[in-house]
Amino acid sequence: MYSTAKVLANGLIELPAEVMERLDIREGDALVLGETRDGVLLKKGKTILDYAGVITHLGSGSGAYRERLIQEVAREYAKGKRDTLLIFRILSGDYRWQERFTEEFTETTGGGMPYTISPSAILETVNVLEAVYKFDKTTVAEVVESILNTPFFHCEMDDIFRKALKAYVEREVKFGDAVMVYWGFWTESLPFLSSEAAC
After folding, report:
1. For 92-116, what is each residue's pLDDT tens digit?
2. Helix, strand, coil shares of the chain as percentages rounded to 5?
3. Alpha carbon distance 110, 152 (integer Å)
4. Against a cut of 0.85, is the pTM above it?
5. Sign of the alpha-carbon dihedral angle for 25, 1, 179, 108
6. d(CA 158, CA 151)
7. What is the phi/psi pair of residue 194, to 5°?
8. Strands 115-116 and 31-36
């Protein structure tokens, strides 16, 4: 669905009222603006960069444990699990990621396309934030949503993850179970998801 927005003085953008209502955008909300091959993409919410350093300030991971985790993730990186490493380098406030990511991003995409984050990286991120850092479900959901909002990232299952995050927080279910329902692996909704939620 397309709508028209106006660019006002000083670069301010006026969104149509019906779009703001439909997407529940309110004055003061953060919107993420990204360039795509087709033009401009505007999304509601924070990006992963808003959470850079969050695992050094929140959760129960000690400095030594954090270092061990980063080393473990680095070993996984060597095996090809680059997405998870990149996410945790950003979340840990390790800014060395930027140079390495920029090099690999340019090499693999030519710099013109978003970096594709694998679905397994999203699932691993939820598990580590819960199990290692003891984040509550609301915080985990906010961090994962910020990853999905990040313009230089792309996740093919974006809509499935967003629905699953909502069920994960509101219905107190396991994230992986909710993903399986919305992905269609379980054709019948589980007892924790009403037919309304599974739509």
Report:
1. 877 666 666 666 655 655 555 677 8
2. 55, 10, 35
3. 13
4. no
5. negative
6. 12
7. -75, 165
8. unpaired
From the list 174, 151, 149, the residue with the least C-alpha distance to 162 is: 149
Q: How do residues 59-98 score in pLDDT, each as one tens digit?
A: 445 556 555 655 665 555 444 467 787 888 888 877 666 6
Structure tokens at 69: 């985790």
- CB contact set of 184 (below 8 Å; sequence gap of 6+): none
Which residues of the chain fall short of a pLDDT of 70?
1, 28, 56-81, 95-113, 185-199
Give the DSSP per-residue string, 115-158.
EEPPHHHHHHHHHHHHHTT---HHHHHHHHHHHHH-TTEE-TTH
**What residue has token string 């699990």?**
81
Single-letter amino acid code for the residue at 199: C
Q: Are 133 and 37 in contact (CB under 8 A)?
A: no
2-36 residues labelled b (16+ CB within 10 A) or e (exposed)? eeeeeeeeeeeeeeeeeeeeeeebeeeeeebebee
